[in-house]
What we know:
The complex is a heterodimer.
Chain A: E1 4-8, H1 9-19, E2 24-27, H2 34-45, E3 52-55, H3 59-71, E4 76-80, H4 82-88, H5 92-97, E5 103-108, E6 133-136, H6 140-155, E7 163-168, E8 176-180, H7 184-190, H8 217-246, E9 253-256, E10 263-267, H9 271-284, E11 289-294, E12 296-298, H10 302-308, E13 314-319, H11 330-340, E14 347-352, H12 362-374, E15 384-386
Parallel strand pairs in A: 2-3, 2-4, 4-5, 5-7, 6-7, 10-11, 10-13, 13-14, 14-15
Antiparallel strand pairs in A: 1-8, 6-12, 9-11
Helix pairs in contact in A: 1-2, 1-6, 3-4, 9-12
Chain B: E1 32-36, H1 46-50, E2 56-58, E3 64-66, H2 76-80, E4 86-90
Antiparallel strand pairs in B: 1-4, 2-3
Amino acid sequence: MGKRVGLEVTVAVAEAVALCRIDMAGGYPITPQSHIAEHLSNLVADGVLDAEFVTVESEHSAMSAVIGASATGARSYTATASQGLLLMNELLPIASAMRLPICMAIANRAVSGPLNILNDHSDIMPQRDTGWITLFAENGQEAVDLSIQAFKIAEHKDVMLPVCVNIDGFQLTHMVEPVEMPTQEEVDKFLPPFAPHATLHPAKPVTMGAFAMSDYFAEIMKAKDEAIKNSKKVILEVWDEWGKMFGRNYKAVESYRAQDAEILMLTMGSMGETAQVAIDELRDKGIKAGLVKLRLWRPFPFEEIRAALKNAKKLIVTDRACSFGGPGGPVFSEIKSALYAGDHHPAIYNFIYGLGGRDVPVQDFTGMFEKVIADTDNKAKDTYEFWGVRE
Amino acid sequence: MALKTWKELPIGCVVSEPGSASEYHTGSWRSQRPVWNDAKCIKCGICYVFCPEGCVQQAENGFFKANLDYCKGCGICAHECWPRAISMVEEG
């Protein structure tokens, strides 16, 4: 077992990725991701990591480069945020359709405009349907653990899909946190060498990313959907193995004091820890409040979500992005959709908060609970609200 | 050739037979075909150079014709042929 050390989360993530013995990394600087690429490039330059670091002229090129590298059988990694992720957008569905197990960190940051460099989830949400396995970290330790697990999940022979690990920009990336780094021996034991499903090699020529017309396109989309749905089994197995090896257990949906809760809140990402403090305060006042945290965004854990919410009378879904002119926040619409197919339908409320890095203290979370509790006849259910905006 | 089901597709749709695109006969897309008038042809080969499909072939006598398995009937050869030896004829 490794030692607990104080590390900036981006540096810890880069160290974790280096422990995975990547063959190639491609990156372009963008706040608040840059320290990941910078530290990886240092590790390569210092001879600590035997990998090729490709400096590129944009994130479009970064994703293109990792696609090419992965297709040759190299374990490939990149990291980005916000506009950089949007610039990669064109390539993301190609990486998943080609079934290339690329891993990527996203230091979540608001997308322009107006220009803003701080944290929310408006960068990852538009990438929802690109066929990437999408995980959310809540703290520095999770960012490290998920970054290593990502390769094992992505490269599993029954998965072969790209994985992105979402790490809230600044709130997580720039914090110095106590992190337990696994040792090289432990990571080597956990993560076998990459065995690609096919490689670009002159001795055995193949075509990757070929053209497909209407006679095949739908079958290919169906195959991709089945692949990502089936990946959940492997994700849970990998988390199980990680728990046994390192004593830190991961689930698709986490619960905190939710067992007997009548009113539940759902968070995704770093806000969960602050919300936990709010739950404790509410419990001290005798309010039966609980928290549910969503770690796995794609594939979406429908059964786990229904099980976690089955006793709630009221449910507060929090969102760090808005689907403008739509049903509110994207997490809200997903949860509603998951519950529609089930038997239990709590009164559900949506708060869109923490946009563009706005601080969300404990009293904001308790305030959301108080507002929803005060709605005794559920008049405001199924609505969404921009929490704390000046009227 | 029977079309594969989604379950039969190779992972990532990797094409493991190099050059298999030649099995796909794009000639079925054609609504017009190029017809050479050898009396006007000066054997310059501009049609051969410009054909985006690479389907214009030179015969032993030096004159040109299109491989109709692949010719999509785009008409670029006829457009580029400056002695106007190629005309595009509607397919019946």
